[in-house]
Design a protein that fits this description.
The chain is an alpha+beta fold. Helix content is about 40%, strand content about 15%. Helix 4 packs parallel to helix 16, helix 7 runs antiparallel to helix 8 and helix 15 packs antiparallel against helix 16. The longest helix is centred in the C-terminal third of the chain and has 24 residues. It is globular, with a radius of gyration of 23 Å.
């Protein structure tokens, strides 16, 4: 009898346990088609931790048939390739029909911990490409691969990146670049805009079908509620709120929070013109295309509520009874966000238990950090080194030296120590706890750019080093110390846009 797994229960690539539940929805939800594929593909990088989620091993990923499958040149046995349709609001304006313009869903793999859909990003045109070429370039693909896995290592809900495959096939953007494909993984790629599409087309049957599909597969407890759709919306609001708290606490900016880029599971999805905070600026805009600053750092939770309100409007026809936006979206979001954000910031500041008053301390910190342009990730690592008891300017130098206004730093540190006075832990114990929640390494734009520039010259070693470094973001890594630094002079003017 032929085995589908090795002695450790790991799958072979040609025997992955596909189920393809999305492909069983009515055909108006998608178009079945094959990806274009890449000529002469080569494997650039893989994520072993992502592979483990679907029972694959590094040895399997190194096989030529893996490269061909994830370059779009060969089907996965048992998969059903398709592109999904959806709509959405982009920069607050209704954009109408969108859909998988350069993504191909390969199928859904069943695991003991739940399903994982595999999707090729950059696999060529689909009926939803809207005159685009359906390709992805090496530059943007590296950014998606690295950030997906970096966010997972930070413990932030996210889609995953299984593999990155490249080719010398030319792709025209602002200049001629080379093509690449990222294999993405998610329990589902259904978005807020997936529901908006059917509501806008007044197809209530399809809207109900999609709602039932998502509830039964991902929110089964909501089925017991007298109003399952409203219960699902409340749960989506809670998950989205907690995701926003994660983003704000770590200093992550998505850059393009359109409703078609919002996961129905509360995952970070569609990595494009994102950025991690270097020197703190509450109104920082990471996306050069966002001229109005709609998706600036401080506004992300507000945009999330706006997007949830759009989802609520879309779901109205399938709710058992009318529901107010305040009850369905705003109240569950605000309660979950405030609890999660203050809890995360209290931990980052070294407090054993969060208090409501910690919000004022965070606001005061943001103010003095912004005035002195303090580097956001570095500040919290430096703060952990300070003793609980006042010990003078020399002992506080790791933090004071980051501020232009030393008096402002001293004033805030006095407030911090007053709040810390009730902490029963030793300084060593507190430092370990702070370092466990404050990453030393995040994917700064200059770090991603250094990997991109080397890769464009055919050198992938920098990408691999950065990938490994970001898989251990809370660890001291003397060999990778340079990646913890603020932008060097050459990277001060780096910009990313929607083409990224």
């Amino acid at each position: 009898m032929r085995r589908n797994t090795d002695n450790h229960g790991r799958h072979r690539l040609d025997a992955l346990p596909f189920d393809n539940s999305f492909a069983r929805l009515p055909e108006r939800f998608y178009t079945r088609l094959d990806p274009w594929g890449l000529p002469d593909p080569h494997l650039i990088a893989v994520s072993e931790t992502a592979a483990q989620l679907i029972g694959l091993h590094a040895d399997e990923l190194a096989k030529p048939e893996f490269v061909q499958a994830f370059a779009g040149n060969a089907p996965l046995p048992g998969g059903e390739t398709l592109a999904a349709v959806y709509s959405g609001h982009q920069f607050g304006v209704w954009a109408g029909q969108l859909g998988d313009g350069r993504a191909h869903l390969l199928g859904e793999i069943q695991t003991p911990d739940g399903p994982w859909e595999l999707q090729l990003k950059g696999g060529g045109q689909t009926p939803y490409s809207r005159m685009g070429d359906g390709r992805a370039v090496l530059r943007s693909s590296i950014r998606e691969f690295l950030c997906s896995e970096a966010m997972a290592a930070l413990g932030i809900p996210t889609t995953r990146a299984l593999a990155l495959v490249g080719s010398n096939a030319p792709v025209r953007r602002e200049t001629i670049e080379t093509a690449a494909i990222v294999t993405r993984m998610s329990p589902t790629f259904v978005r807020f805009g997936s529901f908006e599409h059917w509501a806008a087309n007044n197809d209530i049957e399809a809207l109900q079908t999609l709602t039932d599909y998502v509830i039964d597969r991902f929110y089964p407890a909501c089925r017991e509620d007298t109003n399952p759709a409203r219960a699902m919306l409340a749960e989506v609001s809670r998950r989205t709120a907690e995701l926003m708290a994660d983003w704000q606490a770590v200093g992550f900016m998505h850059g393009v929070m359109n409703t078609d880029n919002m996961s129905i599971l509360g995952l970070t999805i569609d990595y494009g013109p994102y950025g991690f905070m270097d020197h703190f600026k509450s109104g920082h805009i990471c996306n050069h295309s966002d001229s109005a600053g709609r998706y600036r750092f401080s506004h992300q939770p507000h945009v999330a509520i706006w997007n949830l309100q759009a989802l609520c409007h879309a779901l109205m026809p399938v709710m058992e009874s009318p529901t107010a936006l305040k009850t369905a979206v705003e109240e569950p979001f605000v309660e979950a966000y405030n609890r999660a954000f203050i809890g995360k910031m209290a931990a980052k500041l070294g407090f054993e238990q969060a208090q409501a008053s910690d919000a004022d301390l965070v606001v005061d910190l943001y103010k003095v950090m912004q005035e002195s342009k303090v580097d956001y990730p570095s500040f919290f690592r430096a703060l952990a080194r300070l003793p609980k008891s006042p010990a003078g300017a020399e002992a506080d130098a790791p933090v004071r030296d980051m501020f232009i206004d030393r008096d402002a730093a001293d004033g805030w540190l006095a407030q911090w120590r007053e709040r810390l006075a009730a902490d029963t832990r030793s300084d060593t114990e507190r430092q370990a706890a702070m370092n466990a929640v404050n990453p030393k390494y995040v994917l700064r734009n200059w770090v991603a750019e250094s990997a991109i520039r080397a890769a464009q010259q055919g050198d992938y070693s920098e990408l691999h080093t950065i990938h490994d470094c970001l898989s251990r973001p809370f660890d001291e890594q003397p060999e990778n110390e340079r990646y913890a630094a603020p932008p060097p002079d050459w990277a001060e003017d780096l910009e990313v846009s929607c083409s990224s």
